[in-house]
């Protein structure tokens, strides 16, 4: 007797199987399971995937769009300035309320884990206080990691060094940084060294906003790779954004990417935000800013796509849909071969789980019984359709459901219903 069985599931690797769950864990993944279950989900050939994972988000700012005003220029710097105006007015309760509302939405979209940055340039550290509280409140349905993020600079912001120490004492999970926002390139490099040293001493991973600029001479990722090796942090360091790499010359990149691979670094582009904020000073041709995703993947670097923002000072759109993130990446990076699109799907699932160091993630016996049933037959179709999440399962319990999206058609001589998930040619 199982607690739950998902029947006739298409798995991301192309297999078709039933998934049986017992005591919050996956007990079996094989065709034709005939045992009884407390609940049965008929996937009916739909894709069943491990949960979506968002490796880069700003939950302290989410759903704050319009406070205190809108970002008229659409630039990163105006967004930072707007957030700076809002910070003195922040309360922990308001952050918690907005974050919990966002997490309600995230669950319905099949997100099972989020790494959020908490701005420690707010001297009261209400952001850290709030997000650590949220981490406890949502533990039953979303795994949350909190990054101590010095938005205004580790050295540039008054009291930045002390704020980092206090945030670590409060219990954050990850050390963050923003070297390109320090006053000088030298200070940026110095901050990378200091923050990696702290992470090594405290036994914490590093996730650094790195070179989020169109300036091809912003090369702090090189320093981050070197300090990763120096402090023995291989496999525990992520460089987020990396948009300057979009503008670097090819010769320099041919040196840089192998250095990142040697350091075992993770790369976290944020497609929706990177193409929106970058290139704002260009006329034409206009740069789109997203880093060199196919080249990083080809070098064996784990690339994970983040959502970054939803309805906040930097981005007025978004709905917690990691398939929308992958969909944008496919277009901007021209990853349109079937193999490349599957890589984009992995960048919002298994790659992101690897970046966050999640244990028990996957669709194999012994893994946590966390998965999503999608109205699509395979990962490529899921990206194309930004597929409806028919069921979201957490530890073997269905925690969100959405009816299958089918349109009624009233045209003489044509079918009465249209299901977009049935449209791909058999050979696709």
Give a quick set of tags describing it.
Metal_Hydrolase; Urease, subunit C, domain 1; eight-stranded parallel β-sheet; 13 helices; cytosine deaminase activity; 2 domains; alpha/beta; 428 residues; Metallo-hydrolase_Enzymes; EC 3.5.4.1; TIM Barrel; single chain; isoguanine deaminase activity
Radius of gyration: 22 Å
Number of domains: 2
Quick one: biggest sheet? 8 strands, parallel
> Would you tell me the overall average pLDDT?
97
Q: Total number of helical segments?
A: 13
Query: Which percent band covers the strand fraction?
Result: 15-25%
Q: Could you tell me the number of beta strands?
A: 18
Overall geometry: globular
**CATH superfamily membership of the largest domain:** Metal-dependent hydrolases
CATH class value of the largest domain? Alpha Beta
How far from one another are the termini?
38 Å
Low-confidence parts: none
CATH architecture name of the largest domain? Alpha-Beta Barrel
CATH topology of the largest domain: TIM Barrel
Q: Would you write up a description of this structure?
A:
By secondary structure, this protein is an alpha/beta fold. It has 2 domains: 110 residues, Urease, subunit C, domain 1; 305 residues, Alpha-Beta Barrel (TIM Barrel). 33% of the residues lie in helices and 21% in strands. Strand 11, helix 7 and strand 12 form a beta-alpha-beta unit. Helix 5 runs parallel beside helix 6 and helix 10 packs across helix 11. It is globular and about 65 Å long. It starts with a strand and ends in a 10-residue tail after the last strand.
């Amino acid at each position: 007797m199982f607690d739950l069985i998902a029947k006739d599931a298409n798995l991301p690797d192309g297999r078709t199987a039933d998934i049986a769950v017992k005591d919050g864990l996956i007990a079996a993944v094989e065709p034709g399971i005939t045992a009884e279950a407390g609940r049965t989900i008929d996937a009916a050939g739909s894709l069943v995937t491990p949960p979506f994972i968002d490796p880069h988000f700003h939950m302290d700012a989410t759903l704050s769009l319009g406070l205190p005003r809108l970002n008229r220029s659409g630039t990163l710097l105006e967004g930072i300035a707007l957030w700076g105006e809002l910070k003195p007015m922040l309360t922990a309760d308001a952050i918690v309320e907005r974050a919990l509302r966002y997490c309600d939405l995230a669950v319905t979209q099949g997100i099972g884990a989020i790494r959020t940055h908490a701005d420690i340039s707010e001297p009261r550290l209400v952001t850290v206080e709030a997000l650590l509280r949220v981490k406890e409140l949502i533990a039953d349905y979303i795994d949350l990691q909190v990054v101590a993020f010095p938005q205004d600079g580790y050295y540039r912001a008054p009291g930045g060094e002390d704020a980092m120490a206090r945030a670590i004492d409060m219990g954050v999970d990850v050390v963050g940084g923003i070297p390109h926002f320090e006053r000088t390139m030298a200070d940026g490099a110095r901050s990378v060294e200091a923050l990696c040293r702290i992470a090594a001493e405290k036994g914490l991973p590093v996730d650094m906003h790195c070179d989020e600029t169109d300036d091809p001479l912003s090369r702090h990722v090189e320093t981050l790779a070197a300090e990763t090796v120096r402090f023995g942090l291989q496999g525990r360091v992520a460089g987020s954004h990396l948009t300057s790499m979009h503008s670097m010359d090819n010769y320099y990149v041919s040196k840089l990417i192998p250095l990142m691979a040697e350091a075992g670094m993770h790369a976290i582009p944020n497609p929706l935000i990177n193409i929106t904020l970058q290139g704002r000073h260009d006329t034409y041709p206009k740069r789109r800013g997203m880093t060199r995703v196919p080249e990083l993947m080809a070098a064996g670097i784990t690339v994970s796509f983040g959502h970054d923002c939803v309805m906040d000072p930097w981005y007025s759109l978004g709905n917690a849909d990691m398939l929308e993130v992958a969909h944008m990446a496919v277009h901007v990076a021209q990853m349109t071969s079937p193999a490349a699109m599957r890589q984009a799907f992995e960048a919002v699932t298994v790659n992101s789980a690897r970046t966050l160091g999640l244990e028990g993630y996957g669709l194999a016996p012994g893994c946590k019984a966390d998965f999503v049933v999608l109205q699509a037959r395979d990962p490529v179709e899921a990206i194309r359709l930004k597929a409806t999440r028919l069921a979201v399962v957490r530890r073997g319990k269905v925690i969100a459901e959405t009816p299958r999206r089918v349109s009624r058609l009233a045209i003489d001589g044509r079918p009465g219903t249209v299901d977009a998930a049935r449209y791909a040619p058999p050979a696709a």
